[in-house]
Amino acid sequence: MDLILWRHAEAKEADGPIADADRDLTAAGLRHAQQVAEWLRRQPLRDTTVLSSPARRAMQTAQTLGLPVKVKTQLGVGASTPDLLAAADWPDHHGVIILVSHQPALGRLASLLLAGTEADWTIKKAGVWWFTNRVRHDETQTVLRAVHNP
Questions:
Q1: DSSP 3-state assignment of 131?
Q2: How many domains does the chain have?
Q3: Can you give the CATH number for the domain in which 58 is found?
Q4: Which of 25, 57, 109, 112 is placed for a possible disulfide with 29 were both Cys, Cβ 3.0 to 4.6 Å?
């Protein structure tokens, strides 16, 4: 299984009556999301499922990839590491899962996968961390395949 954690790109500040979940990407955020989406399209990804937070900025980031996007409420602002793992069906899903979500949950999940414990690691806006789960010599391993930022 491949698991790609993709933090939403830069969003406009909440202004007046606009709710946090309704914030759009900035022009720079959209450009950064498109750059990362282009990089992802060049990768050997098969059987890819894109899952997004319901927040508008996350959905806009996910849509730049040009694949169908499934919105999952458990990926929203305030998500927990168990929420992300359950949404991704890690490590049992076959194929590629791209989770488009928020900090601090994404950074905490990256820390858990690499270090075995949750810590407040930062994933840059629009950045991706790509993990693979494999079995070698009867041992399950998590491998960080790539980190890519706009």
A1: strand
A2: 1
A3: 3.40.50.1240
A4: 25
